[in-house]
Amino acid sequence: MSHAPRAWRAALGAALALALLAAPPPARAAAGGSITIGIPLEPPNLDPSATSAEATHDVLYANVFEGLTRIAEDGRVVPALARDWTISADGLRYRFHLRPGVRFHDGAPFSAAEARWTLERARASGSRNPLHDLLQPVRAIRVIDELTLDLELERPVAEILTYLGWGNLVMLSPASAAHAATAPIGTGPFRFREWRKGDAIVLERNPDYWGAPALLESVRFRIVPDAATGRAALLAGDVDAFSNFTAPENLAELGRDPRFTVVVGSTEGETLLAINNARPPLDDLRVRRALAHAVDRRAIIAGAMYGYGEPIGSHFPPHDPDYVDLTGRYPYDPARARALLAEAGYPRGLELTLRLPPPYYARRSGEIVVSQLAAAGVRVRIENIEWAQWLEQVFKNHDYDLTIVSHTEPMDYDIYARPSYYFGYHDARYAARLESLSRTRAPAERHRLLVELQQQLAEDCVNVWLFELPKLGVWRHDLHGLWHEAPVQGIDVTRAYLDAPASAGHARPGGRAPAVVLGTVALLAALLAALALRRHVDARYLAGRGAALALTLLAASLVIFVLVDVLPGDPAAYMMGLNASPAAVAALRADYGLDAPAWRQYLDWLGALAHGDLGLSYTYRVPVAELVAERLSVSLPLALLALALATLIAVPLALAAARRAGQRLDALLMGLAQAGLSIPNFWLGLLLILGLAVERHWFAAGGFPGWDAGLGPALRALALPAVALAVPQGCILARVLRRALGEALGEDYVRTARAKGLTPDAALVRHALPNALIPTLTVLGLQFSFLLAGAIIIETVFALPGLGRLIFQATAQRDLIVVRSVVLLLVASVVMVNFLVELLYAVVDPRLRRTGAP
Amino acid sequence: MSALRGWPVSVRLAALVLLGYALLALASLAGWLDHGLALDVAARLAPPSGRHWFGTDPLGRDVFAMVAAGARTSLAVALGAVLVGLAAGTPLGLLAAGRGGLTDELVARGNDLLFAFPALLLAVLLSAALGPGALTAVVAIGVFNVPVFARLVRGSALSLMTRDFVRAARLAGRGPLAIAFVHLLPNLAGLLLVQAAIQLALGISAEAGLSYVGLGAQPPAPSWGRMLNEAQTLVGVAPWLAVFPGLALALAVLALGVLGDGLAARLDPRGRR
């Protein structure tokens, strides 16, 4: 009994020592000041020319990339890489004079040739640029000299200077554009440093910037998927700013807190109850108007948005000078709504479904809308769906009755004239008005046309417009220079600064810590296995178990493939975003290999796996193995820590109870354990955050600084989640161990030991405990797999970038290759751990050495 | 109540608590608490009072009524999942024990396969494939229950098969399947009941976890997990939103655990600890 465990302990010790030695010293604080900005969604990629995902532009716009023009905070078009420009009298030729001496971050020069290349690439057929269609009136782009560029149009397009200022038309370098998805290289005052998948994107100051240099040393955009974590992270000081905070309920509280500045501005986001105009009975104007009368905007703004957000009655932002207030067109009047429905032939009301995408405003407004429509006799069923499904079902296939979404693109009233847009609205007069607007440059005439557009949409009641999405800015009181308004998608940090720079240092050098952690654990497992194999286990038994293992994994791979393959939602559509053309999506599908038959895809996947190749992530365009290693460096230490804590809770508890077997203390302790295991771990996590991270700043409220930040900060971030996981698991373990101890205490060898003169305590620890370890080990093994994969909920509570969240996120983004490979990997690890546990039996229990099985 | 005589106090208490939940769920099902579920934005975020025992939520709904309706969702999903597990797992286990050989091996491998999928992971995948909802949660949790019951039934059936009454039946010419279903199943009822209580507790936890991450019952159907999720941003303002659903959840799991333990102790003569 004594022999093997000693070797085992030595191996464990060596491995732990190795892990500690490998951890680098804490990082220094950066000079000049750095901030962390929270963003709700992770960008699908960092190529601004290939996606309309808001998250991508939030990080990159104006910071990393610049266009010929740019949109200023007040919405005006101002010069950027074009110093100035002239427009011919007929409005058909734009001549841009470019800034001299501009260089990309990789040193490549920027001149008229690069500008032409960028724009030609965007308007070429087969381009993946979302603005491709808007550039069709461009006839030619000419390089006049190194710093002069001509843009010639077929017909006047009054909005062209604005388009050139949007995030999709920023300037790229021919040398680096192909890798922009993962390594964006622009001309801006910040350059891209690092992307920790699922956690953060880091930008650093560009020392060679052509203009006024950025004031901050570096900026970290941290992905904070839900509002609760965001609030906690803000209060705990883990995040310095939210450009647009997603929990309006907390603004009053944060506004009262002297540590924060709260700025409520406006976005370009028209939030609307979209109606499928093509689908009966919603093709009936009376029915649509009934819906409009049944909805009470004020109650929605009060209930879902806590009063933030201005009501709108058409598709136009209230802060725009051309806005006309049409909110009174269909006053809230359920009786009128019922009458209209009766008139349309639905005296008993009707039944509809409402498909809601994930953002908080949609989900919350949805619940209120449903109860309001019910009062008018319209029974609505809610379906909460993910973005990938929304894009596929609602946006692409027009398979919906109602949905709620915010259209955040500026000047997007042209969507009502698009031939196959998801509203199903077609009207020749609207298209004609839009056409003449595009030809018109005289302000008064433009105003008249814009008002007419708004009025027509309201008259036709295409949608029920709810409110303009507010921009709820929250940041540290000593942080200045962030935008108050959001006239364009982007979080401009170029002029942001801190009162007291260098107080907050989040700078981190890159490192190989994940590899070290992984290596250590692999070593540990190998040592264990070798130990068990060499001494105790029969080879034939091993071969049999090995074959069964392989078979289980093969079956699992098939199950996983089938499950993942039937997931609704197209990965390519998700990647390309709202404005992608079908041809561009098809091109991407072919790129991913998604156009091959299913069996072919399955075999390809298995073949690659056999070579140890987990594939390339659709979303991040990096090897899945790299992603897994990154996430495992969070999940594995967390699982091990939780397991260690659980054992630490369980052993003393069980021993104390067993010492007093049958007495009151025994019952009390086991009752406590029963209560402990009944507490759901995510609730415990919530209470721990409230008590120890928010009220007292003892621990991080969420997020993970990375192992490079040093052992201390990393462990501080893992401590609370580990405790939340460990308490219920420890209590389960305690009960198992207590029962096993109880059985062992009744055995003859313990009685013999006692008769020999051993004290009860010594008998318990030296004789009963080792024997009770066997059933306990089984449970420990099961718990380890549970903790590795099942920590998904705790990872959500604490915003940890672990494996569970990777799967969750990859599923939502339809990054199918990641889902498949990671799930299979986890299944394999469960099977392996159970196998290792079986081997461990042989080490712990000499009676099992001959057969190797319990 | 005479049925409760002879049971320990803790078990009797647990049974009472569970009865309370059942009554709450029934009251909610009957619509007696529906007025509390109506939106009333003017009365939102009211602290606990005589009028609103557990306070109100951000949309002015009564938290007590929501907790009661949540009990309905929770119990329904967990019960459904246990039924799925029993309905599929018991025949599989009996089949494996009765037929032995290849059947046994196949069932064992199938169980291994299902066990290799961490439960939550499977639920996430299923929800993504079938769309989130109460029914998906039943399937996801139920699938996890199948191998639990199958293994339990197989193991116990095998040990029962060495008993004399089974041998007698075999000598009387009954086929292995008939023996399994007619002679073994009734003797397994107690064990199944204990396991059902445990799986019910696990199911309630799992349902809460799933709806916490948005994969359980969908709104407007209230659920404890989603209530906890929505309470998170408001812990500083309205702590009652996080406290009561969490307590309701923990208490239900605890009561089922105690009941399961009590039943197990009653069934197992060695179990008098």
Structure in words:
The complex is a heterodimer of chains A (854) and B (273). By secondary structure, chain A is α+β, with helices and mostly antiparallel strands. In chain A, strand 4 (82-87) and strand 5 form a beta hairpin. In chain A, helix 19 (624-659) packs antiparallel against helix 20 (664-678) and helix 20 (664-678) crosses helix 22. The radius of gyration of chain A is 31 Å and the shape is globular. Chain B has a single domain (47-272), classed as Orthogonal Bundle (MetI-like fold), CATH 1.10.3720.10. Chain B has helices spanning 9-29, 34-37, 63-99, 101-116, 119-130, 134-160, 164-171, 176-212, 224-231, 240-267. The longest helix of chain B is centred in the first third of the chain and has 37 residues, at 63-99. The two termini of chain B are 25 Å apart. The interface between A and B is large, with 74 and 56 residues.
Task: Name some characteristics of this structure.
heterodimer; A: 854 residues; alpha+beta; 11-stranded mixed β-sheet; 4-stranded antiparallel β-sheet; 13% strand; disordered N terminus; B: 273 residues; mainly alpha; MetI-like fold; 10 helices
Query: What is the annotated CATH architecture of chain B?
Result: Orthogonal Bundle
User: Structural class of the secondary elements of chain A?
Assistant: alpha+beta
The secondary-structure class of chain B comes to mainly alpha
Oligomeric status:
heterodimer
What is the makeup of the main sheet of chain A?
11 strands, mixed
CATH domain fold name of chain B: MetI-like fold
Q: What share of residues of chain A is helical? A: 40-55%
Rg of chain A is: 31 Å
Tell me the overall shape of chain A: globular
Per CATH, the superfamily of chain B is MetI-like
**How many beta strands in the DSSP annotation of chain A?**
19
Largest interface: A-B, 74 and 56 residues
Query: Mean pLDDT of chain B, as a whole number?
Result: 83
